[in-house]
Write a structure and sequence with these properties.
arginine-tRNA ligase activity; ATP-binding; globular; Isoleucyl-tRNA Synthetase, Domain 1; single chain; Gyrase A, domain 2; ligase
Length: 568
């Protein structure tokens, strides 16, 4: 890519070296270059402190002396401010290069092939069968989806795996609850809400009747042993749950490559257990089988209970072996809440001890809690806020706002869905993923401030300007825009490829969300202070900027899993 900050850093480095006498190497000058805090202080700055001992002068004086010697013909200007040499890039040349590149590459702008097509399974979303998808599932789903999109942008091949919670003792509890208090017709009419009602009732009753827990364990054992009645109920619960889940995923615009849940690995655990035995890693502890992890400063990992029952980790070992064999992954990602951090440290350590090839590149992608009015969500206690209902509320609120702002807008329902759902997704992803979030619907739907609708509206504004301009031939047009009011927007456009790389490396979608807000704010400030549709020799350059902003805002939102309507 031509005209990037890296090229300009090299240009500034050479300009400084030309007026030095080998006092610093090229690498030293390059490394010392800084980006000033504000554009008013220049685009790149060199601190003269490191030359004080060489020249035996104050850094301020050195900066003044160097500025007088530097060839400024390829810059707008170079000035000394205190101990710094501030370089102001040639706005016309710079904008011409950046705008040409964005318009030529379109949605592919910022794409790279760093991943070289490597497979990356992403364990994400993973709701439990027979329980509703609540707001608590939002984070894993949208963070995982955005990371998958960032991986594609950086040349990887993600495999989104919805590792369903479709096995375990909770199914013993649910089957017992259904048999005691359930009704087939009720479940057929409203499967998820009724099934969760039975599950909540079980947990209320077992406080006074602990024998229910024994009954649930016995029932789950029957399920494991393939008892016909238990298996029939389990399959039914799974089917109606998936039908319900997929309606919500469709609303969110999230798809998966595989739905291999815990049950899929139920007959694949023996291999992992055998490997642990063959390597002498499985040892007995109080009747149970554990793997000691002292060398990792971790507690022993419990692999099999004293009665031979398996655990989450037993199935996760089987899952890791399957993914390793099936995908030969470049990385193996688990988008799971931060409360599971210690567990994933243990899992990775066990897989390393087993010698699994992909174990070194296993990454737990933790995220903070989502609360509503400061309260943690819990299915067991019955404190559930259904994601489907929140999405519907957001869509309805968005529609009201659109009708107030733009009553003649065609396809209002479609735009309301894109804005409402987009607001929920963006409201999550603008936060650093390890932070906790307290959810307030009205705050997410505002058209002003740090929200998804604000970025969407900025994109729609750019598209509106382009529609008013009519047919524009951008190809070959001079895009040398030297308007100082546009400079903040142009430099923001230049930063996009670096943001894409950084967000992928850090598994941090919030970097893209924050970038989109920065670009939107810069563009809106430019729009407020400049007349764009004025017939003069810079009209094509201004419209090129508007088009570039539209492209990059749309792609930024796309990488977050958010739609960008052309009109709002």
């Amino acid at each position: 890519m031509e005209g990037t900050l890296m090229d300009y850093k090299a240009q500034v480095t050479n300009s400084i070296l030309n007026v030095l006498n080998d006092e610093l190497s090229s690498a030293e000058v390059y490394e010392k270059l800084e980006k000033p805090k504000t554009l008013a202080m220049g685009d790149l700055a060199f601190p003269a402190f490191s030359l004080a001992k060489v020249f035996h002068k104050a850094p301020n004086a050195i900066a003044e002396e160097l500025v007088s010697k530097i060839d400024q013909s390829s810059y707008e200007k170079v000035e000394a401010k205190g101990a710094y040499l501030n370089f102001f890039l040639d706005k016309g040349n710079f904008s011409n290069e950046i705008l040409n590149e964005v318009l030529e590459e379109g949605a592919a702008y910022g794409q790279n092939d760093n991943g070289k097509g490597g497979n990356v399974p992403i364990d994400m979303s993973s709701p439990n069968i027979a329980k509703p998808i609540s707001m608590g599932h939002l984070r894993s789903t949208v963070i995982g989806n955005s990371i998958a999109k960032l991986l594609v942008k950086n040349g990887y091949h993600p495999i989104k795996d919805n590792h369903l919670g479709d096995w375990g003792t909770q199914f013993g509890k649910l089957i017992v609850a259904y048999k005691k208090w359930g009704n087939e017709d009720d479940v057929k009419k409203d499967p998820i809400n009724n099934l969760v009602k039975y599950y909540v009732k079980f947990h209320k009753e077992d406080k006074e009747h602990p024998e229910l827990d024994d009954e649930a364990r016995e029932t789950f054992k029957k399920l494991e042993d393939g008892n016909e009645e238990e298996v029939f109920l389990w399959k039914w619960f799974r089917k109606v749950s998936l039908e319900s889940f997929n309606k919500i995923y469709e609303k969110l615009g999230v798809t998966f490559d595989t739905y291999n849940g815990e049950a899929f690995y139920n007959d694949k655990m023996d291999e992992g257990i055998q490997i642990l035995k063959d390597k002498g890693l499985l040892v007995e502890s109080q009747g149970a089988q554990v793997v000691k992890l002292d060398k990792y400063n971790l507690n022993p990992a419990l692999i099999l209970k004293s009665d031979g029952a398996t655990l989450y980790i037993t199935r996760d070992i089987a899952t890791a072996i399957y993914r390793d064999r099936t995908y030969k992954p470049a990385m193996n990602l688990y988008v799971v809440g931060a409360e599971q951090t210690y567990y994933f440290q243990q899992l990775k350590a066990v897989l390393l001890e087993m010698g699994l090839p992909s174990a070194e590149n296993l990454h737990h992608i933790p995220f903070g809690l989502i609360t509503v009015n400061g309260k943690k969500l819990s299915t067991r206690s019955g404190r559930i806020i259904l994601l489907d209902e929140v999405l519907d509320d957001a869509i309805n609120l968005a529609k009201k706002q659109i009708e107030a702002k733009n009553p003649d807008l065609p396809n209002k329902d479609e735009v309301a869905k894109e804005v409402g759902v987009g607001a929920i997704i963006f409201g999550d992803l603008k936060n650093e993923r390890t932070n906790n979030i307290d959810f307030v619907l009205e705050d997410q739907l505002r058209f002003e401030g740090e929200t998804g609708p604000y970025v969407q509206y900025s994109h729609a504004r750019a598209e509106s300007i382009l529609r008013k301009a009519g047919d524009i031939d951008f190809h070959g047009a001079d895009k040398s825009l030297d308007d100082p009011a546009a400079w903040e927007t142009i430099t923001a456009l230049k930063d996009f490829p670096d943001v894409i790389k950084s967000a992928c490396k850090d598994f941090e979608p919030s970097e893209v969300a924050k970038y989109s807000l920065r670009l939107a704010k810069a563009f809106n400030k430019y729009y407020a202070h400049s007349k764009i549709l004025v017939e003069d020799d810079q009209l094509a350059a201004r419209l090129s900027l508007v088009k570039a902003v539209s492209i990059v805002l749309k792609e930024s939102l796309n990488l977050l899993g958010v739609k960008a309507p052309d009109a709002m």
